[in-house]
Amino acid sequence: MVEVGRKYVFDFDSTLTRVEALDVLAEMTLQGKSNKEEVIQEIQDITNLGIDGDISFTESLERRIQLLKAHKNDLEGLVSELRQKISKSIASNKEFFEKFSDDIYVISCGFKEFIDPIVQEYNIPSERVYANTFKFDQEGNIVGFDEENVLASHNGKIECLKNLDLDGEVQVIGDGYSDYVMREAGIADKFFAYTENVHREKAANNADHVTPNLDEFLYVNDLPRNISYPKNRIKILLLENVHPDAFENLSEDGFSVELVKHSLPEDELIERIKGVHVLGIRSKTQVTQKVLDAANKLLVVGAFCIGTTQIDLEYSKKKGVVVFNAPYSNTRSVVELAIGHIIMLMRNVFTRSSEIHNGTWNKTAANSREVRGKNLGIVGYGNIGKQMSILAEAIGMRVYYYDVADKLPLGNVIKCDTLEDLLSVSDVVTLHIDDNKANKGFIGEREFNQMRDGAMLINLSRGFVVDIDALANALKTGKLGGAAVDVYPEEPRSNGNFETALQGLPNVILTPHVGGSTEEAQRDIADFVPNKIMAYVNSGNTVDAVNFPNIRLPKHTNAHRFLHIHKNVPGVMANISEVLAKYEMNITGQYLSTDDKVGYVITDLDKEYNKEVVKALKNVENTIKFRVLY
Question: Is the pTM value of this prediction over 0.85?
């Protein structure tokens, strides 16, 4: 598995740790000083100049120590701070350092006084740590460094590594150009630019390989690692201007994330989806069969909205692609806008506002009514409809609802047995209907005729549920007294020109599909959906998936996890069990959930096993997708 004689040479600052240790020491020693920020910035600038080779390291070290004004007693606190600042992927792969400690060296221009205690915890003894040492005066003040140490000189790392005369392939892992020079001098065979904490162009441009974390380095070298596949290799494409918190959440977890502000038409998406593991969309992007067929690596689609009709759910399932949405995150935003529309329409505010904008003062009570005591009809008594009923009652409205499914009414809300019953009794009708295609044209000319004369209609649900031309006609004839519409049968992919038959009609409020578009809702969605995506990619959890069997899995530790998605046909589980038995797998846990189309089985096993079992499980008849997690 691993080449004999390979040696690994690590830098310390910004590689093994997330920080430059002398910067941390400066933060401590300059605490309370008026010029703290200026001095720290100067130290950081000098550090970068030395790392990039723009000034000699000796000069860099001298200038920084002069600015530090540190004492020997500060070092214990520094070590405590550094223990909390180990690079994330270094800490998660401690087993590698313990197993290969005989082949690991640290060559750093930092100082042994704080490096030794940190790396000893990773099984790297002091004799394999090459670094500078401080000089102290009689009072214990740090006054300099050992100038005789080769690492105190310019390009000292070259001389240090040369003196070690290591056998076998030598790989250097570090963040700076001062690490690359060992490769440039020909005494190291490979240089890995380590960019988990800082990306230095000069080092990255000269590297044999850029490694965003230790997982990538271990993967490239086929070494034991904490996770089976580096997260930086998992590509996520977020479309339609998804909230930036989603980008931050997914990037922070280590994934490679690309953010696009608009939706993509099918032909463009077919090209962009190749090699993508996770697709994030809102309501405009259409995930069709053609898109899914082109998605050669797609694992999951995240809909950063409530609706999922823009996704071919059944074909996604057939391809083993799990779909998540955000069924709750923006419900409050929609409800608040609907309540606002009710008041605005009943008071005819939009008409009065337009008159003022056009230079006309028209103070009148005509067609201006309180909402208290009026009848509100809610069509669709789901998450939004129920919240709507509570708030409407709170402002004094009598609330009726109609739903095709049996629902538990809240408060004093009254259930209507038919849609006609609800329409005939309501002063305001608000639609909160799901995205079932059968709901197309749900409200049309017939339904408008069943409504009270002068009633109001609000649609914040789906554009296709209302016949827009019939609505326009009902408004023009005075059958309806007003309407508020936020969704339309056809909507543009990006901001720009838009036309509808409802434009220019009095007491009609038109908004561009912003019902759920509040900062709070989008932030909640940007937290909820990425968490579902990460739970599936990282551990296999499918809780709240809209097209897949739901399984809540325990955290797997000290085990490998096999995720097997297959067609739900007789004999598949028997074949899987036969393979596991043939290779004498020690199963520590197994979980299965199915629906009428697919089965999803998760098997946790001891870490040691014959790797041929993976190929055998992939070849089980009717397998759709197979992954290994550890």
Answer: no
